[in-house]
Amino acid sequence: LVLLTLFEFSKIKGYKFSIYAPLLFATAPVVIHETSSVYVDFQWIFYFLLSIFIITFNKKLNYSNLALAGLFLGGMVATKLWTIVFIPISVLYLIILLKNNSVNKILKSCFVYVAMALSVSLIWFLRAFLLTGNPLYPAFDNSSRISISLSSVIGFNYPLLNPISYVNVFSPLFFIGGVFLLYRLRSNIKIFWNNKLFIFFLLLLALYLSIHYPFGRYLLGLYVFFIFFASTGIYNFVENIKYSKYLLNFLLLVFFSYYFINSILVLPYSLGFTVKNRYLTRILSRDNSSYYDFNRQFNKYISKSDYVATYGIFGYYYADFRYIDFNFIFDSKNR
């Protein structure tokens, strides 16, 4: 659904350059990793894209369209709580789009947009408030081991200025598009200057620079709009350089072969030709984020009826024994 939505951008007049955006998204290593996980990032990105698509390209931005866009934005927040910070940025973007309208029109439009967004996620905020007293639980909750404080979140995000630290977010084709962007750079800059979507990207970039977001999949909200730059470079290069399509097709063949070979490596387990322990022993990192009894080293110490006490661990996603989290015992309120 995300890829189809990205493809729809290329059908808009003046946005034909975004034809390669789905390819740049699908070939990103973090996206490929996400496809085999149970994370919900693709869902909220889909809602996010739809909301921005509606308010950007709808010629008649009436209250009905704004309500629909707000519903999608609310679906994003209901899917992933931390995306609530995208609401102010989206509202600011809406104000920029409506700058030629009256103040009364702008205020009503923003109210409809935000009200519909909050109406979708309000039930989850209410549920969290009734259960914990904090509508944004587990954020800003001192009793939680994954609590978040404002001081630890807000501030200039210096690591974002170093792409090497999150290079796995980028598709290899993204860097190629960045190089191609230098070709006819002046005309490419003109494209950026005349398109509303790049205004939203700048607003989103400012948000990411002012908040200490983790990297990896958390950067997909920014990356999904960043790829339009690289797509522009690839599009103009292919359209204006003879035989460049053959070069692009060759690169795609290389990348496809690489991903295909890596997919083949997991087929033995997928088809039941190998046991789970041997497979997980080969692919998992030996750390607490993916703890597993590698090669059955704990079998003689932990029986099937035993419970293992854990402390300070967010989740044993691959633990093959029963465990109890004793973290709460050492909380300050329980000492």
What's this entry about, in short?
With 335 residues, the protein is mainly α.
Q: Can you describe what's shown?
A:
Helix content is 57%, strand content 2%. It is mainly alpha-helical. The N and C termini lie far apart (49 Å). It is built from 14 helices and 2 strands; from the N terminus they run ααααααααααααααββ.
What structural category characterises the helix and strand content? mainly alpha
Shape: flat
Low-confidence stretches: none
The SSE string, one letter per element, is HHHHHHHHHHHHHHEE
Determine the mean pLDDT.
76
Strand content: under 5%
Percent of residues in helices comes to 55-70%
Q: Report the major sheet.
A: 2 strands, parallel
Instruction: Note the total helix count.
Output: 14
Using only C-alpha atoms, the radius of gyration works out to 23 Å
Strand tally: 2
Strand order of the largest sheet: 1-2
What distance separates the N and C termini? Answer: 49 Å
